[in-house]
Write a structure and sequence with these properties.
Elements lengths: L1 E2 L5 H14 L14 E5 L4 H14 L8 E5 L4 H15 L3 E5 L1 H5 L6 H12 L5 E6 L16 H5 L2 E8 L6 E11 L8 E10 L4 E10 L5 H4 L4 H8 L7 H8 L3 H14 L13
Parallel strand pairs: 1-5, 1-6, 2-3, 2-4, 4-5
Antiparallel strand pairs: 6-7, 7-8, 8-9
Helix pairs in contact: 1-2, 3-5, 9-10
Length: 280
């Protein structure tokens, strides 16, 4: 899972961990039975982790804390792997979180050798694991690969890029998950969550975090990257429109919209009842 700084990637992966440990689908869909999670943290501290964990559980309506075992890390992952293997076995952990890959390497992110050693060490844990990573600041918002060695993306089985949309002054943001790689399977559809925060300003404490499904087509910054057919359907929720008007609103050539509408008529003729030069 990789993103630019401040995109709520650590918070969102912790929400995934809560889902796995509790069986409550806070973020994502649970596959298999719930079980303990080992959270290996090279970036924050146990106090920040505990505050976030309580807030996520409270936001999900849980009055208990699931089995997420926190371990503050200093040594790099390859050196720490023997200890972590014993910890995984002792806890019967179902999932390990590595936050973050940059610090867990213990060396240059661009180093192929460091990256390969990191992934080999993670595989030696013999349970599924999620690595959190950054992207270079100079890259576009819709980055294709994590920062550093190309082996990070080629060795990972599945990669997700997180894109954040947040309005100034709002106690909420939208996080979109975009599947960039999925070994041996086609890419999964992008999806998004609205993340709402509640803070105790007097105590300077995060008290609640709520994750809710968000339609990406309702967020202009995200909608522009969605398939044109989906964007057309979203515009027509409000009523009939001409192909010309659709092209103007969507900022797409009229001929392109006309082709897509023709395809939609062919596949789902019951959805379109008007000639292409009239309203739909």
């Amino acid at each position: 899972v990789f993103a630019h700084g401040g995109s709520a990637k650590s918070l969102s992966v912790l929400a995934m961990a809560v889902s796995v440990a509790s069986g409550t689908p806070v973020l994502g869909t649970l596959h298999g039975d719930p079980g303990p999670v080992l959270y290996c943290d090279w970036e924050a501290d146990p106090y920040i982790h505990a505050e976030r964990l309580r807030a996520i559980c409270r936001g999900a309506g849980m009055d208990w804390i699931p089995s997420i075992h926190y371990r503050r890390m200093v040594a790099n992952l390859p050196d720490a792997a023997p200890v972590l293997r014993r910890e995984v076995a002792r806890l019967k952990a179902r999932l390990v979180i590595v936050d973050s890959l940059g610090l867990a390497r213990g060396g240059e992110p661009e180093s192929a050798d460091m990256t390969i050693r990191l992934f080999n060490a993670a595989r030696s844990l013999e349970v599924p694991w999620i690595g959190i990573d950054h992207v270079a600041r100079s890259r576009s918002e819709d980055a294709d690969t994590p920062f550093g060695s190309i082996y990070t993306s080629t060795t990972a089985r599945i990669t997700w890029f997180l894109e954040k949309v947040q309005r100034a002054g709002e106690d909420a943001l939208v996080v979109a998950f975009k599947n960039k790689k999925n070994n041996n399977k086609r890419l999964m559809r992008s999806h998004a969550y609205r993340v709402t925060f509640d803070n105790d300003e007097a105590a300077d404490e995060l008290t609640s975090v709520v994750y809710e499904n968000q339609d990406m087509l309702d967020i202009p910054e995200l909608a522009k990257h969605q398939p044109l057919v989906d964007r057309i359907r979203a515009q027509l929720r409000g009523g009939r429109m001409t192909v010309k008007d659709l092209a103007t609103v969507l900022d797409v050539p009229q001929a392109t919209v006309q082709v897509r509408v023709a395809e939609m008529r062919k596949k789902r003729g019951d959805l379109i009842h008007f000639p292409l030069d009239h309203t739909w």
